[in-house]
Amino acid sequence: NSVTADRTEFIGRHGTTEFPQAVLGGVGLSGRVEAGDDPCAVIASDIEIPAGGDVTLLWLLGDAATASEASALVQTHRGKDFDQRLADNERVWRGFLDT
């Protein structure tokens, strides 16, 4: 796995969002996660799919003060139905935005 928060690193100077140079070149990302002029969030991972098979991917992104707090949050959310997580998320945002 590799990550970056640098849009130029991912897309490249001559790439596009449809054809980012980092993907086309198959390169690993630098791990740079800093505030910048043009930030983004990119997580790259090699996935092997067997012939005739399929793979389901689930990414849980969030914010926590410690690794143990992050693990607890992942366990909480993995135990919830996806539709329930979406409904809970909408409820929280509606509460925030409606004030």
Report on this model:
This protein is an alpha+beta fold and 99 residues long. The protein has 2 domains: 43 residues, no CATH class; 31 residues. It has 4 helices and 2 strands, in the order βααβαα. The longest helix has 16 residues. It is extended, with a radius of gyration of 17 Å.
Structural class: alpha+beta
Give the spatial strand order of the biggest sheet.
1-2
Low-confidence stretches: none
- Spatial extent as radius of gyration: 17 Å
% residues in beta strands: 5-15%
Tell me the number of helical segments per DSSP (H or I, 4 or more residues long). Answer: 4
Helices and strands, with pairings:
Layout: E1 2-6, H1 7-11, H2 21-25, E2 39-44, H3 67-78, H4 82-97
Antiparallel strand pairs: 1-2
Write a brief caption for the model:
This protein is of the alpha+beta class. The chain is built from 4 helices and 2 strands.
List keywords for this structure.
extended; about 100 residues; two-stranded antiparallel sheet; about 10% strand
